[in-house]
Amino acid sequence: MSGCGHSPHSMKPEETLFEKGELLINGYFTGEAYLKPLLAKDKNNEFSIGSVHFEAGARTHWHTHPKGQVLLLTQGEGLYQEKGKAARVIQKGDVINIPEDVEHWHGATATQSMTHIAITNVQNDRSVEWLQPVSKEDYTAAQQ
Ligand code: MN
Fold it and tell me: Is 10 part of a structural domain of the chain?
């Protein structure tokens, strides 16, 4: 017998509920973000579901959703900001209901990773409108 009865691996704070998925290389993220697709829109569900993992410092570009989006935080600590408002810290267990056509971004903090499930509504085959990257200045200010 050795150790204290649990493996250090199981205590890793960045352990995610779903697989981390594949590195996103679509050009709409800053830093390292990963996507594990969970459910595609089908004849019954007018939305898609995916788990997105952001390493520390990673975030989306500014964007909007034509019919809104819901984020379910499953790991870590991150940031959510709507244009013209202060960024808010979001944590595991939080539910973020993003209204349609509101410019916003989400991501990890500068020092901690964050994972969320994204439920994204689809309207006329569109679910997101990508805008400009979140500047280093805006991201730094968001850490307050
Ligand atoms: Mn979004």
Answer: no
